[in-house]
Specification:
- The structure is a homodimer of 203-residue chains.
- Chain A is mainly alpha-helical and 203 residues long.
- Chain A has 2 domains: 45 residues, Arc Repressor Mutant, subunit A (Orthogonal Bundle); 142 residues, Tetracycline Repressor, domain 2.
- Chain A is built from 10 helices and no strands.
- In chain A, α5 packs antiparallel against α10.
- The N and C termini of chain A lie far apart (60 Å).
- At the A-B interface, α1, α6, α7, α8 and α9 of A face α1, α6, α7, α8 and α9 of B.
- The structure holds a DNA duplex (18 and 18 nucleotides).
Amino acid sequence: MPKTPPARTKRDVILEAALDLFSRYGLHGTSVDDIAARADVSKSNLLYYFSSKEALYVALLRDLLVLWMEPLRAFSAEQDPVEAIQAYIRLKLINSRDRPEASRLFCLEMIQGAPLLREELDQMVRRVVEEKSGVIRAWVASGRLAPVDPDHLIFALWATTQHYADFGVQVQSITGKTLADPAFFEATIENVQRIILDGIVKR
Amino acid sequence: MPKTPPARTKRDVILEAALDLFSRYGLHGTSVDDIAARADVSKSNLLYYFSSKEALYVALLRDLLVLWMEPLRAFSAEQDPVEAIQAYIRLKLINSRDRPEASRLFCLEMIQGAPLLREELDQMVRRVVEEKSGVIRAWVASGRLAPVDPDHLIFALWATTQHYADFGVQVQSITGKTLADPAFFEATIENVQRIILDGIVKR
DNA sequence: GTCTATATGCCGATAGAC
DNA sequence: GTCTATCGGCATATAGAC
């Protein structure tokens, strides 16, 4: 029984339009009219698929959270830590380049105290981080990684990579480049990897 | 001629209330009524001091931007780079602890493409970063710092420190602590400094 | 499933008295 | 400078025909 092809349903179109707008203007800065216009459906038709604006917003966040945590799941104690972390930085920067809206939407939600995502935060995210903290601890214990608090390392990895999506405007204002520029993209990967892995102190 | 004492004018009270709310709910998520209530003034009285909600928002951003860039200004080529960067990380984390609202407001504005701050970004921020990039380049050239792109280093410093303000909810959800906890605060400084300066590769 | 029309409430800003 | 009253606009959501 072949799976139904990933048809671009109207629901998906609406979700995508909503992501574009919510991630830039926030829940309150976006009107249902705006989303409907961008998705090329009527407002009442949109409200047929999602019972309210907030329901649409929450549906979006839930869908994205899973994708968002995926790169971290790859960590396992058997891997070489340097390779694993290098690969992780590359993956997250690919996300920042290809799906900056997703990153921005999470950032918006976090800033506002994650009122609609707190439950997932306190459960799923917490669980994954705890598990992966264990992996990092094992790397440190086996002498393959310098002593570092796993939580703070994960925060540093998140922060340095998501920065290029969330603060993309600032990055562009300062460097004149975006991650869409292949040379700049590779230089970014290289520099983030070097800073996190090797630090900047001369030896 | 002694300066007038820093009297807490009504204008200041309004600005502070606005910061609290804007930084959490954004420009559109905050009503003038909300701000007025929190500042304990009437709505029309507020609109006597600020001609519109947007004017208030912009006034706030301009005031904060100056404070926000201050820690970076301290960088100078004569300093020892390790000490300068350690001090910088500490200062920024103090800001994240004591004024998380300011950090969040900037983050919000950046995510939205900085429509009301782009001019300042392209001028003042850009100028300061260019100047301090020169300092970092000098540190590298003189062999006191490992080779690193100055812009990416500045991004990494910003990202890792501001993360504790902007994603404070997530930090608390995962670690159970906030920067208000003195032990956690010192551990954070220590870990961020170590990651950026020494990296995490075992040698 | 999709549409038009509309009910309903909120919010920014102004008018004008004091 | 501060107040009360209110206008006008916009946005969410629903009703009900097709």
